[in-house]
Amino acid sequence: MTLRFLVLGDSLAFGTGAATARDTLGARLTRSLQAAGHEVELQLVAVPGATSLDLAVQVRRVTGPVDVALLVVGANDLTRQVPPARAATALGSAVQDLRGTGAAVLVVPTPDLSSVAWVPPAFRAVVAGICDQLRARQTLAAERAGAVVAPVAPELSRRFAADPALFSADRFHPSSAGYALVAEALAPTLLRLAAASTDAAA
Question: If DSSP states are collapsed to H, E and C, what string results for the chain?
Fold first, then answer.
């Protein structure tokens, strides 16, 4: 049985900053699924620069059924000042639409942007707090709609803040090493969802 794996969301879902296509989040997680014994068909509809308000368009672009979806969004909602309530509502609606087709959904909410280079040290606590507030709204909306929310933000934030090599040359997106770290953190939860999806289909 082929596991149909969908990746949607923003530039992190797309893989901006990775040195090669093999280093992107979708490609790395596809290999993790394959290593666990799944035959995988990857569909990528993520768009760099996307906010939560763009998710509905991405969902409409999906072709065919989906077993497991990875949805990464939030950073652009902050940088483009999308009202948190609107962002959370749009995320919840996208999750609901995906769940309605039978897909299991793993949501990766907004990262902690306080560790990126353009944030002055004096403002990092404020930025971290704003990220936390949006993440809390996203988590509530996504879980209410039936998604699993990846519980990885604090640990990943600490790792990225401590190691500049995890950022790409633009000092905003992850490097290949950064994507490897994110994929490693997400893989256990994604594998559980994939296994449950396969069991349900069987």
Answer: CEEEEEEEECHHHHCCCCCCHHHCHHHHHHHHHHHCCCEEEEEECCCCCCCHHHHHHHHHHCCCCCCEEEEECCHHHHHCCCCHHHHHHHHHHHHHHHHHCCCEEEEECCCCHHHCCCCCHHHHHHHHHHHHHHHHHHHHHHHHCCCEECCCHHHHHHHHHHCHHHECCCCCCECHHHHHHHHHHHHHHHHHHHHHHHHHHC
Name the CATH architecture for the domain at 2-201: 3-Layer(aba) Sandwich (3.40)
pLDDT in tens, 43-82: 999 999 999 999 999 999 999 999 999 999 999 999 899 9
Exactly one of 11, 32, 114, 197 is catalytic; name it: 11
Q: How far is CA 95 from the centre of its chain?
A: 12
Catalytic annotation present for 170:
yes
Q: Is 173 noted as a catalytic residue in this protein? A: yes
Give yes or no: 77 in active site: no
Q: Is the Cβ–Cβ distance between 99 and 145 less than 8 Å?
A: yes
**Domain boundaries along the sequence of the chain:** 2-201
Tell which wins on pLDDT, 131 or 107. Answer: 107
